[in-house]
Amino acid sequence: MSKSPMNRSVHEADSKAKISITGSRRYAIYGGSFDPIHVGHVALAEHAVRECGLDKLIFMPAYTSPFKQDRHVTDGRDRCGMIETVLAQNKAFCLSRYEVTKAGPSYTIETLRYWKKLLGGDLGFVLGFDSVIQLDKWYMGEEILRDYHLIAARRPDTDDTEGMKIIEGFRQKYGSRITILDMAPVDASSTEIREKISAGESVSGLVTPGVEKYIREHGLYMNSELISESDRQRLEEFMKSNLKESRYRHSLGVEEMAVKLAKLHGGNAAKAAFAGRYHDIAKCFDIETMDAYIAKYDLPRELLGNNALAHSKVAAAILGHEFGVSDREVLDAVRYHTTARKDMSLLEEIVYTADVVEDNRTYDDLAYYQDLAYRDLDQACLEILEYTIADLAGKGRPLDRDTAEAKEYIEAKLKQRANKSSKN
Hints:
The protein is an alpha/beta fold and about 425 residues long. It has helices spanning about 10-15, 40-50, 75-85, 110-120, 130, 140-145, 160-175, 190-200, 210-220, 230-240, 245-265, 270-280, 285-295, 305-320, 330-335, 345-355, 365-375, 375-395, 400-424, and strands at about 25-30, 55-60, 95, 120-130, 150-155, 175-180. The N and C termini lie far apart (about 90 Å). Residues about 1-20 have low confidence and may be disordered.
């Protein structure tokens, strides 16, 4: 016996869609870039499900919006990955990769026709109020207005008299079925979120915790001035394929701590996040691989066979030569995060200290050094340097000249501060 369209699992007809709509009669597509999906998107989706009695609401991230071809859109795998983290919030939520797997712009009518033919039933389309009153200007907009249930959200405190006149005109001219959802405003936008992350700022409250975690773990929306999106994606893959799980967690911890210290001490949070995240990309190389990179980039020969000292220098070389990072301050923060050096920049001090005091560290005095770093970055650097020098001496290991000079530099800096303070 052949199956009717509504009794088919979507998996059978769309292998890219993680959906089962068996038996559903009321469903709607919620399309958009979702770059990233935020609390406003989720609130609208939940409101639509509740007010329209939807059995399923299908999040449909676009491959490339016809209206956003002048802006790079994050890879569809990541946008889908972020959406997947919110599906558990409502049993009606589901995700389709139908559009992100298509090559070229995504036009709404093509997607609506596909799903109407596939599933039949009552197909709705969720969109914003400003979008619905422009639908007659969309590609094949008259067909959308005539054949599909439109679910539009608006702010209840907004005067939409003219917009409602347009909607009433659509109803009379096309027989449009348009449901208006009055929603309390949700102060979140994908553009704002991308800009905040690029600047190293928190997006807590703008996205769900699951989305925030996904963004952080995948390094999304980092400073575009430091690296292109394609290079960032390659760098993420490089880092994950070359670091052990514990070292990867440490890197994320250094990123988080570096941002915190940058905000406390007036540093560039975006650069701190980047340098902190990628400072250890060469840490887990074996001797043979490390030595090959040393030779490839003509680094000092005394680094050969010394991974503990070499990994920071090699990491900076890889970032610059293979991933297009040209910011000297960032590269130096990575290059000297192990040894420190004289004339350290603020960013170098931040990353050097964050490497030691990030939350995943387990030594006994961690809380003391963290508190000190929050209060006085220079003093924290000095005490970390003093501990490092004493530890090396106790183990009979040589002291790197940069480390010795860094201690002298920080001591002089603190003395100068004290003298200036006493005069004031």
